[in-house]
Amino acid sequence: MRSRHASSCHPTAVAGRLARTCVAAVAVAVLAAVALAFLMAVPARAVAGTVEKGVSFTGYWNDSYTGSGPRAALRQLHATGATWVMILVTVYQNDIGSTTITCSGAATPTDASLESIISYAHRIGLKVMLKPQLDLTDDPSHCRSQIGSGFSDGDWATWFASYDETITHYARLASAAKCQQFSVGCELDSTVAHVAAWRRTIADVRAVYHGKLTYAADPIFVGPQVVTWWKALDLIGIDAYPTLSTRLRPTVAQLLAGWRPFYAQLAKLHTRFHKPVIFTEIGVRSLVGAARAPWDWECTGAVDLTGQSRWYRAALQSFSARDWMAGLFFWQWSTYPTVGGSHDTGYTPHNKPAATILHAWFAHDLR
Q1: Partner residues linked to 212 by β-bridges
Q2: Statement: residue 29 has pLDDT above 60
Q3: Of 67, 73, 129, 224, which has the highest C-beta tally within 10 A?
Q4: Using an 8 Å Cβ cutoff, are 211 and 179 in contact?
């Protein structure tokens, strides 16, 4: 899959630059009215807690989760009806040829800040998945999915030793903070063929963390970058940004049609490994044409709030029809409480019609 992340960039690495002032009360009312047109499709089901109804909470600096602002943003996230939150922590290596990973740089949230925001999430009633991910600091022409190009066997052994040390550090933190779920990696496509090394890393994580485990995979279904070790985990994790339509402004029906072949591939994974599937990430920007390439966080264009709402509706409707899907985490919610609104073209649904869609569906069990 074409990577959405280049170097240390990420959809919300530019969140601060996309931040806008909060929309006025009148504008919010207008957005809500637009969203109401979509709510007729929401089924009347009893509320239950079986599905992981999640949103990704993303900070990219050492103090991103510190202070009153991130807590206010987390309360906004919770108000969508989410029962789970994914909390992101990004660690780094210099380039794709590096074998040393660091979690002590200025761009990595501190352990203390992670512990504090996890505790607060639990306090307001959210379950937590901690999701470490690895990015590159000095290699803008490559991304994490290309790590190790040209590595020798010795290089791979050194890299996995560093990765194992890093990921078990966060597994211990997740255990101490009572996180209900933990991701052992994210979109490390070039590494997954090293099956024995991954099984050792997962075993080391299980030695210190006893909650549910997943891995956030790119949706690659053929070739050497396919994950074959799902049975070592509890959940098959997929970062879901499929091309659902080539149209600039697809309808809900067209988007639903686009989901069907994607779910057909996921059903094969579920059948093969006998594991439930979660979307460790799923989302689209509020941008004209975003459904063509939902992973593209860099493209520019006009705001399309309706398009994002249609995409959310189709995503939730498709998800609810598959009882082997265990959960989904929408990408993403910023730690800045003012990010979002009627002029924002980013991924966040905050202060957009998509948030109303999310709230309406999250009020039910998604089954």
Answers
A1: 181
A2: no
A3: 129
A4: yes
Determine the Cα–Cα distance for residues 246 and 289; give it in Å rounded to an integer: 8
Closest to 353 (Cα-Cα) out of 334, 340, 364 = 340
| H or E segment and range at residue 56 | strand 52-58
Nearest Cα residue to 114 out of 135, 92, 131, 134: 131
Indicate if the alpha-carbon torsion angle 60, 301, 139, 132 is positive or negative.
Answer: positive
For 159-314, where are the E strands, in sequence order?
181-186, 212-217, 236-240, 277-282
| Residue entry with tokens 């103090």 | 63
Q: One-letter amino acid identity for 42? A: V
**Helix, strand, coil abundance in the chain, percent, nearest 5:** 40, 15, 45
Q: Where does the pLDDT of residue 8 fall: very low under 50, low under 70, confident under 90, or very high at 90 and above?
A: very low
Which residues lie across from 57 on neighbouring strands?
87, 333
Give the 3-state secondary structure of residue 240. Answer: strand
- H/E segment holding residue 53: strand 52-58
State how far the Cα of 240 lies from the Cα of 262, in Å rounded to an integer.
Answer: 9
Residues 84/127, Cβ–Cβ less than 8 Å = yes
Domains of the chain: 15-362 (3.20.20.80)
Q: Which residues contact 187 (CB under 8 A, 6 or more apart)?
A: 3, 5, 133, 144, 145, 216, 217, 218, 239
One-letter-per-residue 3-state SS of 51-100: CEEEEEEECCCCCCCCCHHHHHHHHHHHCCCCCEEEEEEEEEECCCCCCC
Q: Say if residues 181 and 127 touch (Cβ distance below 8 Å).
A: yes
Q: Which of 283, 273, 296, 253 is closest to 358 using CA atoms?
A: 283
Question: What whole-number distance in Å separates Cα of residue 63 and Cα of residue 85?
Answer: 18
Model confidence at 223, pLDDT cuts 50, 70, 90, reads: confident
Residue type, 125: G
Task: Give the pLDDT of residue 285.
Answer: 98
**307, 357, 280, 129: CA torsion to nearest 10:** 150
